[in-house]
Design brief:
Order of helices and strands: HHHHHHH
Helix content: 55-70%
Number of helices: 7
Strand content: under 5%
Largest sheet: none
Structural class: mainly alpha
Shape: globular
Length: 121
């Protein structure tokens, strides 16, 4: 939940309300959650579609203006959980042979943006 939300929020600078209210961003969130589910399953974690639906229910109950700490830290030029969250999904995906194109693209985008706080527009 938090890594997928952080990936979409940090790469687009969108709040959870904006993400859930925009079909394209909502689709990105679902894609990100699906990649994490696939990595988890490859690691033996039995993440089900019910788990994803529950995560969406939790996000739908969040304040519309909500953002993740990673998103706020990157925007503020502070150290963030980028490597520990999105980077971990990418590393596990590579190690396990699980495709994680959304997370890999977001990680690349945020790293290429330069120092934290300089998000690619």
């Amino acid at each position: 939940l938090i890594t997928a939300w952080g990936a979409v929020g940090a790469s687009t600078r969108a709040t959870i309300g904006q993400i859930l209210g925009d079909p394209g961003l909502r689709g990105r969130l679902l894609d990100a959650m699906g990649e994490i589910q696939a990595v988890g399953r490859a690691l033996g974690v039995p993440l089900t579609d019910d788990d994803l639906r529950y995560a969406m229910t939790v996000l739908e109950g969040a304040p519309a203006e909500g953002t993740t700490s990673m998103q706020r830290d990157l925007a503020g030029g502070r150290p963030s959980e980028l490597d520990a969250q999105i980077g971990a999904v990418v590393r596990f995906g590579q190690e396990l042979g699980v495709a994680v194109p959304y997370h890999a693209g977001v990680l690349r985008q945020l790293q290429e943006a330069g120092r934290p706080g300089r998000l690619a527009g």
